[in-house]
Structure formats: structure tokens, C-alpha cells
């Protein structure tokens, strides 16, 4: 009967309760949507970085990763490529040669990471072809084509078909240079691609490096839902002489951002629930204080204070949580709708791209996030119930019913 | 006859103002089972304070109160709550029913606290409402009942726990004369037929006329104790 009593008490002042319940609905909706929106930002950054930069995993010679010395090529790379292609979780594999060097135009020169790629493999792994904004993807230039990021091309003041010279050390330690012509300019949200990379055909680069068919880097992408860390461990076990790393190891910043997503939601919960908790406490205190006599009479008749405490707690929990499903449902509906259509922020895309985000964001909330929100609401309701309930049980029946 | 309630040399002093207020002054009284007693006196004479102390709602500053031989003056708050639940019925001037519960649920509520089975609770609550001639209002909430009807539900609630005695603080103060007569007749009948003990505090002459014992208080002390045949 305590629950019935509490439920009926909630509806004693319909308007007042409706305001609190409405605030909870709006608060929970804000949490779900706000959380999903934040996720879309972070996921966009992480996914963009995985898709166009680090891939789901990479394999190197262990010593190559220390100072990018080009002599440390992967031993028998073809057996690794075959192994990866046979794995059902691996979608695409790309081989690369990598060297740090200088790029110079007639106007400017700057340091750059020169990446020799197999155009078809690279297109499948990093979708590099999709980033071409001007010119073509290694086409239209008969000899030594190069792709540059937009910002790098602006810095060098070059356009499509402009000539640039790449300078670096070859395998014998000699400074070597090659003349390349810009085949395409890439429009990437990744600053690494936009400002610091030059993509050439691997065969062209290897010829200049003098490493024949040497491979410095094998990148692979995986099917959605693949446990990238487990897969990396599996590949590592098969090729103990090489270094296999998933994107979490390759880019600790992305891992930090992934963990940050959860923290952001918790901070949002804390802020919104704290504000709502004061509203709940205020309403319940009003409800308790205007029922001083009634609570006093209940205690006088023989209701233990623990039961009164429980009754007020149930009442607060009901008041706080009855709007929860509606808020979650409204949040879920909004996220589903915007999650499929996307939020187009192209008006701000220049600014967003400069910091590594896509211009269309897709709000997304995971089951664990929903559970965190539910837990946040329940904890808030529980904490908000303590003070009014404590206030209620401090009443002395003789004072509460005095003057009756 | 052995005393059901025995107050021995009880005093109650309030220190809420600069000058202490002596609400009860070294008062002793015995009340036997089956009595129909009215405590009367002018406003401020200590009627309600005495009733509160006898009912375990308040502690005496000094002296002891025993109920059926059990000293309640030294009990802890939680012990007193349980003691009241099983031994004392209350009827208040303003009825004080729980507004969100129906008449039946109000009567049932106290038996729920006593952890009695639902079947037993419902049967007893219906029986009591029947006895109070208010069975047809069982599903009405207090706000839908007249003052007299509410007070009859309150009496049913007081009886529901099978208490050793019922304390009624000015039970007729808010009732019209017809309701007062009906209520008093009802309580007198229950007293007669079930040997239930009633103790009233009252100003109401009609209650005094029905009482079989009249304890008159002045300044917290008994000035007369009249037993009628």
C-alpha cells in the first residue's frame, strides 16, 4: 500500500507534478540527444582518422617505427598480405613505402612525409581517391604523379600539373631527388593528409629509394564490429618478427577520444541531473512540508519512521522516473531520425575540416550510453529523495498534530 | 478493578519560553478497562497534554505511565511507535484521515502496519464500516465525505487495530449536533457491547453528559474525579 499511497500522493497536485515530470522528460531528452551529438563529433573524428589515416591496423618492421629508417622493410610482405586477405574480418589491404623528405616547388619548400602507395589498394583501404578535389587520382600524368593535400598545395603555391621536387635519402644514404607532377589535390579533414603528406606511386618511390619491392607499411581495414585489438594480436602471433598495432595503439589520441566520449556523457549527466535534482528536492520538500500533520498522524497511529522514509523515497522516485521512458523515447526517436539523415554543418565545414571533422554529423548513442543515462536518473532520484524523506521522519507526531 | 492505564506523579514542563510552562503538575490517575471517561476543563488546562502522555505521543518530564503494567515513559521512540500501533487507537478533532486513500483503505491501513493478511484486513475494515453505518461510502475518499462521516471512519480506523483503549481528542469539536449525537451513540454502544475503553478530552457538554467518568483539570492538576453510575 505504501507504493499506492506514494503514487496517489504524486498526483495530488497534478500541475506541480507535471512540471517536474516535464522537466525530467526534457532533461533526459537533452541528455540522450546531447550525448549522441557529442558522440557524433568524436566518432566523426575517430572514424575519419581511421578511414583516411591510420586504418584499423598497421604492420611494420619493429625498428622502422623508431626513426623511419628506410632500410627496415617488412620481411616477405607478400605472405602477410596473403594471410590478411584470407582473414574474413579483413576487408582490404594496402602496401606502402614511407620516407620523410622535402618537397619543393618553384616558390616554396617544406618537410613532408612521402608515402608510396599502390593506387588501387590504397583506394580500397583509405578511400584516398574519394578525397580528390581537383585533378585526378594518379591519372592524367604520364610519369611520377603525386597527390598533395589542399593546404600543402596552397603553401607550395602549386596547382594540378604543377611540378614539384621530392628530396630524400636513398637506401645507400645518398640524397636523391625526383621530379613529380601534381596529379590531384586532396580535400581532407585530416591535417596529416592536408598539410603533411605527399602520395606517390610506390613503384616510383621504391625506384628512387633503391629498395626494389620493399614494403615499410601494410595497412588493413576490417569489417564493422571487428575487435581490432584481438585481430592485431592474432596477426602478431602469426608474424612475431613484425610489429602489428591496431588503431588504438597507432593513435593514442583516438583512444583518448574514445574514452573521452564516455566521460563527456557522464559530465553531461552530472550537470543536467544536478539541476533537475534541485527541482525535485524543492517539489518534494513542498509536498512534505504541506503534509506535516498527515505525516505526524501516520507516525502517531504507529507507522514506523523507516516506512515514512520509504514512502517519501518511493514518491520521489516515482516523480523523478515516471517521465524517464518518455524522455528516452523522445531522445531515441530524435537520434534515429537525425542519425539516418545526418546533421549538415556544411556552413561551418571549413572550420570543422580544419580540426579533423566531417561536415555531416550522425548522432549516435550506444546501449551502454542509454544504460548510463538510466543509471544517472535513478541515482539522481535516489539522492534527491533523501533530504525530503529525512525531513519527513524528523517530525514529532505531538507537534505535527498540535492544535488539531 | 485493575488499572489499564496508570499515571503516577506525572508532570510536564515546557521550556520553550523564558518562563517554564507547567502543563501537568504532579498528576496521578488510574483508568480501568471498559471506562468511558471524559477529561474536561478550560482551554490550556492540560487536557491534550495529558492525553498525549497517556497515548505515548509525548514523554512526561517526570513520573511514570504504565499501560497494562508496562512502563511506557522510558520507551524509545521506535518502541513507542510499535506500542501505539498495537495498543492505542486515536481519534482526532480534525479526523486526520489520509486524503488519498478511500474510507476502506484508511481503515485497512493500520492493519497493514500490523502486517495482517489482506483477507483479514478487508473483512475487518468492511465489518467496521458496516458497524459505523458507513459501508456504502467505503470507496469514497475523505474529501467526498461529510465531517460526521469522516469522524466515523476515524473511529473505525481507531478500532481496526484492536487497541486496548481509544484516545479521542475533542472528537466532536467540528461536528454538528446530529453528527455529534450519532457519533457519541456509536461510541457508547461499542463501549457497552465490546467493553472498549474510551478516553476523551472535550469541552462539549454532550460528551460530558454521555461520559461515565468525568475528570476535571485546572492548571494541569485534577480538581475533581466524578464516577457516574
Dominant shape of chain B: globular
| Proportion of helical residues of chain A | 55-70%
Query: Reading side by side through the largest sheet of chain B, how are the strands ordered?
Result: 6-7-8-3-9-10
The CATH architecture of chain B: 3-Layer(aba) Sandwich
Keywords:
heterodimer, A: 404 residues, 6-stranded mixed beta barrel, 17 helices, 12 strands, B: alpha/beta, Rossmann fold, 6-stranded mixed β-sheet, 4-stranded antiparallel β-sheet, 7 helices, 36% helix, 28% strand, globular
Sequence-ordered SSE layout with sheet pairings:
The complex is a heterodimer of chains A (404) and B (229).
Chain A: H1 2-10, H2 14-54, E1 57-60, H3 64-67, H4 77-86, E2 90-104, E3 109-117, H5 119-126, E4 132-135, E5 145-149, H6 150-156, E6 163-169, E7 175-186, H7 191-196, E8 197-201, H8 202-209, E9 217-222, H9 228-238, E10 243-246, H10 247-250, H11 252-289, H12 292-301, H13 305-321, H14 324-341, E11 343-344, H15 349-354, E12 360-361, H16 367-393, H17 397-400
Helix pairs in contact in A: 1-13, 2-11, 2-14, 2-16, 11-13, 11-16, 13-16
Chain B: E1 3-14, E2 21-32, E3 36-40, H1 47-54, E4 62-67, E5 70-71, H2 77-87, E6 88-91, H3 103-113, H4 118-131, H5 147-160, E7 165-169, H6 177-194, E8 197-202, H7 205-210, E9 213-218, E10 221-227
Parallel strand pairs in B: 3-8, 3-9, 6-7, 7-8
Antiparallel strand pairs in B: 1-2, 1-4, 4-5, 9-10
